[in-house]
Specification:
The chain has 149 residues and is of the alpha+beta class. The chain has a single domain, classed as Yope Regulator, Chain: A (2-Layer Sandwich), CATH 3.30.1460. The protein is built from four helices and eight strands. The strands form two sheets. The protein has a six-stranded antiparallel beta sheet. It has a two-stranded antiparallel ribbon with strand order 1-2. Strand 4 and strand 5 form a beta hairpin. It is globular. Bound molecules: zinc ion (ZN). The site of zinc ion (ZN) has 6 residues, from loops. Zinc ion binds next to loops.
């Protein structure tokens, strides 16, 4: 897989000079240092159900954890007693799992959710996160690849 590595922050991206916050990565554990064990279990459970680990990258920056497949498709902020998450979809999905839904751009909607334990990782949430992942993959595919199907 061809990837571009930013010399300043050391993170890898699919596209050369891809815009990013360009801050040095922080260890993933840093985000969970003040969180209870259930918070980390929730995060690990969600990722284990999402897709093979090779299908996406985990970006751990000072501002939070983001998942990318070309572009960012989900972000997480571990708190003391819960995991706050966001995922990106083309349009608004009004579902009880989402506390907040807001529009970022024409075809980009942020869906915010809060998980208190691994039992909150429902099949519906996993399905929507997978949708966000495949959306990111498709959006970041070069046009010639997309058209030659
Ligand atoms: Zn950088």
């Amino acid at each position: 897989m061809q990837a571009w590595k930013c010399r300043k922050c050391g993170r890898s991206f699919r596209h050369a000079r891809q815009s990013h916050s360009c801050r040095p990565p922080v260890p993933l554990e840093t985000h969970f240092a003040k969180a209870g064990p259930a918070v980390r279990q929730t995060f690990d459970t969600l990722l284990a159900k999402l897709a093979p680990r090779s299908a996406y990258q985990i970006d751990s920056a000072a501002s939070g954890i983001s998942l990318r497949a070309g572009g960012v498709f989900a972000a997480f902020k571990p708190r003391k007693a819960w995991l706050d998450g966001e995922l990106l979809l083309d349009g608004p999905q009004r579902r009880s799992v989402f506390q907040k839904v807001w529009q970022l751009s024409a075809r980009s909607w942020v869906h915010g959710f809060r998980l208190r334990g691994p039992e909150d990782v429902t099949p519906e949430l996993v399905r929507l996160l997978r949708e966000a992942l495949s959306r990111a993959v498709n959006r970041n595919r070069p046009p010639d690849v997309r058209e030659s199907k």
